[in-house]
Design a protein that fits this description.
This protein is mostly helical and 281 residues long. The protein is built from eleven helices and no strands. Helix 3 crosses helix 8 and helix 3 packs across helix 9.
Length: 281
């Protein structure tokens, strides 16, 4: 008689995951400690326009403000807007998707029609219409990005929840007479947290790029407050005098943060696909 011993080996986390975590951690620390580590106030004029790096580590912007200080303060606003908008849009989208998956029938059809209607509008055009009609404001910017998130999150949530809602333990909960909220909260949500966490990371990365795009068009964060997208827009004239740092630095920050979030999200997405039961794949 032969005894087979299965040894479970722990796979080491890839370096891409640690790189992603490092990028996110640094960005969060900079956002939290911005007033302590920034050399100057974000709106303080400390030199001549477009000074080269020297006494000021990254140089100055179009009116002589310290570029490094504005990047640091811009990290705070970029993360706050993106995180708040993603959280609001995610909660609403998940709730709509779960309700559609559980109730089905006419309610699901109506919700799908609503989602498809919102998805028919190009996201950037939808944001431009809302902000142009109601005015550029920080709160409105967050709400606008959240609205753009809702239909996409709802579609993903409905797809994931529909697979879980058809399983036996959910049928047993219905047979016990549990209501809609109880089934969604106690049965469906705990079994969809991992793929939803992956989607949240991707939505946050998209929010960073989307908020920066609106700021670049002049409809996002308004001066004198700094965020990375508005810094690119307001320093476009730097190219005419042969200075690239005021544009390159914020653009690199946008790209690096988006890459860091995607590295972490992609890793969790891979883990989810390996661990997911066959009937949920």
């Amino acid at each position: 008689m032969t005894t087979v011993i299965h040894v479970q080996t722990r796979t080491r986390a890839p370096i891409s995951l640690w790189v992603g975590f490092a990028i996110i951690s640094v960005a969060l620390l900079v956002a939290i400690l911005a007033p302590l580590i920034a050399p100057y106030a974000q709106s303080a004029i400390v030199g001549s326009p477009y000074e080269s790096p020297g006494s000021h580590l990254l140089g100055t912007d179009l009116v002589g403000r310290d570029l490094l200080s504005r990047l640091i303060y811009g990290t705070r606003l970029t993360i706050i807007v993106s995180l708040a908008a993603t959280s609001i849009g995610f909660v609403i989208g998940v709730a709509i998707g779960f309700v559609a998956a559980e109730l089905r029938g006419g309610v699901e059809t109506a919700i799908i029609w609503f989602i498809d209607t919102l998805l028919s509008f190009p996201p950037l055009l939808l944001g431009l219409v809302i902000i142009a009609a109601l005015g550029a404001d920080l709160t409105l910017l967050i709400v606008t990005i959240a609205i753009v998130h809702v239909p996409r999150v709802a579609r993903i949530a409905r797809s994931i929840a529909a697979n879980v809602a058809s399983m036996q333990f959910v049928d047993a909960a219905r047979a016990r007479g549990e209501g809609l909220i109880s089934i969604v909260w106690r049965e469906i949500l705990p079994n969809t947290l991992r793929p939803l966490a992956v989607e949240f990371g991707l939505r946050f990365s998209y929010a960073v790029l989307y908020a920066s795009s609106l700021s670049f068009l002049g409809l996002g964060i308004q001066p004198p407050d700094a965020d990375w997208g508005s810094m690119v827009r307001e320093n476009m004239n730097a190219l005419q005098v042969g200075v690239v740092m005021p544009i390159l630095a914020p653009a690199l920050c946008i790209g690096i943060l988006a890459v860091g979030v995607n590295l972490v999200a992609d890793r969790f997405a891979g883990e989810h696909s390996r661990k997911l039961p066959e009937e949920l794949r």
